[in-house]
UniProtKB/TrEMBL annotation:
Residue ranges annotated for the PurE domain, each copy included: 118-250
Any one Pfam family match given in the protein's UniProt record, by short name: AIRC
Any GO BP annotation: 'de novo' IMP biosynthetic process
Name of the protein this chain belongs to: Nickel pincer cofactor biosynthesis protein LarB
A GO MF term: hydrolase activity
InterPro entries attached to this UniProt entry: P2CMN_synthase_LarB (IPR039476), PurE_dom (IPR000031)
Source species: Anaerotruncus massiliensis
Domain of life: Bacteria
Length: 252
């Protein structure tokens, strides 16, 4: 982590192993590294507690490999989102990664173990919502959170959700992922005493308008404590859920 590197530099100055001038040069090199096609933000972990995340869509495998190697050299585990199976295969030929084709997320380096007692629950309205839900779940797990999945518990068969009330009530954060009319978030928001992050998906018939109907339903939720991210933005939901979960404290 970048905090460890800065602490090491300061300790080396204290011990007389490096001069203050050399330490100043090292610190100047810390904020970001210019690769030409990307400026890698090495101070992201220091500012936000989480290293920069690589958005894989639109980048070439070579660019992804270059950014990942730059971050790994600084000791950061690297999370890569929206990585196609074809790009993942090309990247894996150059560096070691673990890849989940459902969430389209890859991870390079050592994945952190859960470091908080709080649990995130990721629920979906239907099976078709699972790819977005997995993006949220895998993101949260990669950021050190225990995650429990409740899939296909939508309002078309409400008894499926009510059978898992104990799971919902024990969560610190719930991520509700749904397309169609997006009603799942309001139902969960009316049952739970924790924050609910609603994720509208583009799943649905023609009048769903690519997820717009679910987005508007979630924005107009009458349940308190429901916040909404963009359509199909599982990563944003998983990241926000992790931030909320870690506000409750970490393991000692």
């Amino acid at each position: 982590m970048e905090q460890d590197r800065i602490l090491q530099i300061l300790q080396e100055v204290k011990a007389g192993a490096v001069t203050p001038e050399q330490a100043m040069l090292d610190l100047k090199m810390c904020p970001f590294e210019d690769l030409g096609y990307a400026k890698v933000d090495h101070h992201r972990a220091l500012r936000q507690g989480v290293p920069e995340v690589i958005f894989g869509s639109g980048k070439t495998p070579g660019q992804i490999v270059g950014i990942t190697r730059s971050m790994l050299a600084r000791g950061s585990g690297v999370l890569i989102t929206r990585l196609s199976p074809e790009a993942a295969e090309a990247v894996a030929a150059e560096i070691e990664i673990s890849y989940d084709p459902v969430s389209r997320i890859a991870f390079a380096g050592e994945r952190p173990a859960p470091d908080t007692e709080g649990r995130i629950v990721v629920a979906t309205g239907g099976t078709s919502d699972i790819p977005v839900a997995e993006e949220a779940a895998v993101t949260a797990e990669s950021l050190g959170n225990p995650v429990e999945r409740l899939y296909d518990v939508g309002v078309a068969g409400l008894h499926r959700l009510l059978a898992k009330l104990d799971v919902l009530m024990s969560a610190r954060v719930v991520v509700a992922v749904a397309g169609m009319e997006g009603a799942l978030a309001s139902v969960i928001g009316g049952l739970c005493d924790c924050p609910v992050i609603a994720v509208p998906t583009s799943i649905g018939y023609g009048a769903n308008f690519g997820g717009l109907s679910a987005l508007l339903s979630m924005l107009n939720s009458c349940a308190s404590g429901v916040s909404v991210v963009n359509i199909d933005n599982g990563f944003g939901a998983g990241y926000l859920a992790s931030m909320i979960n870690h506000m409750g404290g970490t393991k000692s």
